[in-house]
Structure formats: C-alpha cells, structure tokens
Amino acid sequence: MGNSIIVYGKGRFFMTDYDNGYNSAETEIPVKDVMEFYPEAWEKLQDIVANDKQELFNIFKEQTGAKSVDFEMDNNGVTKMTYIFNSDVDENKAKQIMEYTIGQYSDGWGEGLEQEELYTETETYTETEEDEEGEEYEEEYETEYILTFHLWKRDTKYSYIIK
After folding, report:
1. Nearest 5°: phi and psi at 85?
2. pLDDT tens across 89-104, in order?
3. pLDDT 10s digits, 8-27
4. Chain centre distance of CA 64
5. Phi, psi (5° rounding) for residue 136?
6. Over the stretch 50-80, which tens digit does the pLDDT of each residue have?
7. Is 96 exposed, middle or buried (0-12, 13-18, 19+ CB in 10 A)?
8. Helical pair 91-107 and 39-64, crossing angle rounded to 10 deg
9. Buried b or exposed e, range 124-157, using 16+ CB within 10 angstroms
10. Among candidate residues 120, 108, 66, the one with its CA nearest the CA of residue 88
C-alpha cells in the first residue's frame, strides 16, 4: 500500500519599485494579471521551475522518504506540492511534511525563486526643483520596477491532505 500527502499554499507575484535605488513600494500582482500583462515573466518562471525542480525534488525525496515529489501551480497562484510514498503515512508525518515544505518555500527553493528578477523596467523622469534662492533647476530621477515571485509569505495559509 502507500499514500500521498498534498501540501497546498499560494504563490504570489510582487512588483517592487525602487526610486533612485531606495525601495519605495511593493505591490502584489494577481497571477492572471502577470499572465496577461507580463507573459515573458510567466514563461521565465515556468522555465526556472522546470529546470530547478528535478534536482531540488531529489533533495525533497531524500529528506522526506517520498518515492516521488511534484509541484503544480494553477492560474490563481494556488500551489500544490505532492509527495508520494511507498507506505502509509500518518497524521504526524503529514504535519512534518507540511512544515518541511513551508521551510523549503521560505528559505530554500522559495528564496532562490525570490532572487530571480522575472521582469525589470527602468523609468527616468525629470522634475523641476527650486533651490534656496528660489532658482529653478531640473533634477533627474529614476524608478526601477522589478517583478518577483514568492512561494512563501507570512500570511499564507497552508493546508495538507492525505490521500
């Protein structure tokens, strides 16, 4: 016999603005919007996951005792990490697997994904300023936009099922 554990979470995209090098805002962007407005970023993420997951999942298998591991994400960002075992797994083991997965999302695989800039854009603009004497001059500013993907976020709700 044997069964599987499926850990559910939520992947999220964030666009971070850096004004003249300083982080000024971070905005969550829905997955569907990324797919529609940043298709190259969506494709890049799919490539990263496809290239990284086999090597990574070998580590997951070794650490959990699973015979196979798989990862999926739907168009709403819901993630599904499936661990398949040769033997039956109880509730305690399932909870351990969920905690292990969350840990990998936060400081393992997830951190690696967070380091990937899926989309970048720089916008330069000029503003008219006034000096102390009231004389006008032009100041050039730059805003950089960086889109990243996070598997883990503090308020993410995780759940699991045993099949």
Report:
1. -120, 155
2. 899 999 999 999 998 8
3. 999 889 999 998 778 888 99
4. 22
5. -85, 145
6. 887 778 888 889 999 999 999 888 888 899 9
7. middle
8. 130
9. eeeeeeeeeeeeeeeeeeeebebbbbbbbeeebe
10. 66
